[in-house]
């Protein structure tokens, strides 16, 4: 089997393992993150209605200052932005869906910034 296919299968397995434990409701929606080499994005999703409530990303012009979207500082900026947008939408508690990523580095910086912004998870 090709090495990249094997890695992709492992990532999908880890993502499903995490996602099976998390389901977002209207009281406590799921906050899922997407981490790539160049960008970091997050969205708060209500799984019962299947709608995205709020989202933030380094693709946004307001958040992509300096062009560095794939580092811990950018993840912190996205964490603060998603906390502000969520509180404006009346969301205080969320469930963190880290996908196949470890709670380390950019993911940890994002989560700590979101907690400082007022989100609970």
Quick tags:
Nucleotidyltransferase, domain 5, alpha+beta, 121 residues
Quick structural summary:
The protein contains 3 helices and 4 strands, in the order H-E-E-E-H-E-H. With 121 residues, it is an alpha+beta fold.
CATH class: Alpha Beta
CATH topology: Nucleotidyltransferase, domain 5
Q: Largest sheet, if any? A: 4 strands, mixed
- The overall pLDDT, averaged over residues, is 90
Task: Write down the overall geometry.
Answer: globular
C-alpha Rg (nearest Å): 14 Å
Q: Secondary-structure element sequence?
A: HEEEHEH
Strand arrangement across the biggest beta sheet: 3-2-1-4
Number of helices: 3
Per CATH, the architecture is 2-Layer Sandwich
CA(first)-CA(last) distance:
39 Å
Helical content (DSSP H or I, runs of 4+)? 25-40%
What is the number of independent domains? 1
Structural class: alpha+beta
Low-confidence runs of at least 5 consecutive residues: none
Strands, total number:
4
Sheet-strand content, in percent, reads 15-25%
Describe this structure in words.
By secondary structure, the chain is α+β, with helices and mostly antiparallel strands. It has helices spanning 3-21, 72-88, 106-116; strands spanning 30-35, 40-46, 51-57, 95-97. The chain has a four-stranded mixed sheet. α2 (72-88) packs parallel to α3 (106-116).
């Amino acid at each position: 089997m090709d090495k990249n296919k094997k890695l992709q299968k492992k990532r999908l397995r880890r993502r499903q393992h995490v996602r099976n434990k998390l389901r977002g409701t209207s009281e406590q929606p799921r906050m899922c993150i997407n981490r790539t080499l160049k960008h970091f994005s997050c969205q708060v999703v209500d799984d019962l209605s299947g709608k995205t409530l709020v989202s933030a990303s380094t693709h946004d012009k307001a958040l992509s200052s300096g062009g560095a979207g794939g580092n811990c500082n950018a993840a912190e900026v996205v964490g603060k932005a998603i906390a502000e947008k969520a509180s404006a939408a009346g969301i205080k508690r969320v469930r963190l869906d880290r996908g196949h990523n470890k709670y380390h580095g950019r993911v940890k910086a994002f989560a700590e910034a979101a907690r400082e912004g007022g989100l609970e998870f």
